[in-house]
Amino acid sequence: MSNKPLVYLAFIILVLGGGLLIGANNMPGDWYQSLAKPWFNPPNWVFAPVWSILYIIIGVVGARTWLTLRRSMAMRLWFAQLVFNFAWSPAFFGLQDPMSAMMIILGLLVAVAGFILVSWRQDHTAALLFLPYLAWVAFATALNGAILALN
Hints:
Layout: H1 4-25, H2 29-34, H3 47-69, H4 73-94, H5 98-119, H6 124-129, H7 131-150
Helix pairs in contact: 1-3, 1-4, 3-4, 4-5, 5-7
C-alpha cells in the first residue's frame, strides 16, 4: 500500500492548518483599518478564501515535490517560501511593521519564482500549480508596497 495519500494529507494539513492558525492569531484589526490603502486594495473578505485555496495548492505541490524531488533545490525553495509565507502576517499585522513585511514578501516572491524555475524541468505540473500563487504574491507585494508608500 502506498503512503502517497498520507503524504498529501500531511502537507495540506501543515500548510492550510499553519496558515489558518497564523491568520487567526494575526488579524488585521483597528491598526490595519486606520491605514491609507491603494485603490486596488480588495475587500477584507477576499483574503481568507483566496489564501485557503492557495494553501491547499501549496500543500499539494509540497507533497508532489517531497515524493519525487525530496533532496532537491525545488524542495528547499518550497520550504523557504513556506517560512517567508508564515512570517509575513506576524510581521505586518502582529508587529504592525509594513517595512519588515515588505522585505519578507520580497523573499517570498523570489522563493516562489525560484521554485517554479527549478521545478519546471522535473515537474511541470508543480511549476504550473504555483503560477496562481506567484500572481497572488506579486499582487500582495504591490499592495504591501503601496501601503508602505501611503503611510
